[in-house]
Amino acid sequence: MRCVDKVVSYGFPRKGDPGNTRLIYQYNGTRTRAEVVVNDASGDIVTIYTSLSNDWTRCANAL
What we know:
4 strands; alpha+beta; four-stranded antiparallel sheet; 2 helices
């Protein structure tokens, strides 16, 4: 949960698909990142993922 909290709290916002914003948190350099997709209308989280499949442990250890 540490990595998820970091992304949601401090992720850098970027435009996503129409109606969505992506929050991006980079860790262990710039090639690995965790992303949250937020619905602009409701504020709900649509999905959350890491650029490397299931890399949550490395993301949390980078904090």
